[in-house]
Amino acid sequence: MAGKRIILIGGGGHCKSVIDIIEAGGVYEVAGILDVPENKGKTLLGYPVTGTDEDIESLAAAGHTFIITLGQIRSSVLRTKIYERLKACGATLATLAAPTAYVSKHATVGAGTVIMHHATVNAGAVIGLNNIINTGANIEHDAHTGSHCHIATHAVLNGDCHLGEGVFIGSNSVLAQGVHVPDQVVVGAGAVVYKNIQEQGTYAGNPAKKIA
């Protein structure tokens, strides 16, 4: 049986990963992909690029469901702009979780978020709007993420961690119990954050230190 039809926004590598989750889940059927004009008419994993961002409003008016499949490396600006545009026109955003992910029934996950294969979201965790919880990431009990965050592959947010808006946590990085991170911070791959981060910037190393 065909699932609900969904429009994907962004046709790069992250889109491929989301398509895999959609196919594995069986809840949605990809109705089309919106991407840059030069890719219109092409296909991605067998699904057509049917239009561009300029089609968002008309597709929303027609009742389509959306998910943002534009990736987020460091900056959340583009994903945030698309999210705000979708909300401004009353669009419905899906929330997706891979069948191999574990999401506690006692966790809260915001609209537009995608939880990738083998990720864990434990009891009491609160995931904001339009997040990417990437492959193998571990969001422990009572951790909170703001909206438009990307928790990259195999990163660990231990219990009671709190992230602000638009935070990027790099692959294999670890945030110790109860660490707080403000808006728009970038934590580089493999970093270990033992203490609260006090100001915006890019942090790397073990222990993590501000590098930019």
From TrEMBL:
A Pfam family that the UniProt record links to this protein: PglD_N
Family in the record: Belongs to the transferase hexapeptide repeat family.
Binding-site residues, substrate: G71
Name this protein carries in UniProt: Sugar O-acyltransferase (Sialic acid O-acetyltransferase NeuD family)
Residues the record lists as binding acetyl-CoA: H150
Gene3D superfamilies named in the record: 3.40.50.20, Hexapeptide repeat proteins
UniProtKB keywords: Acyltransferase, Transferase
Originating organism: Taibaiella chishuiensis
Ranges in coiled-coil conformation: none
Lineage: superkingdom: Bacteria
GO molecular function, one term: acyltransferase activity
Domain PglD N-terminal: 5-86
Catalytic residues as annotated in Swiss-Prot or TrEMBL: H141 (proton acceptor)
Residue numbers marked as site, Increases basicity of active site His: D142
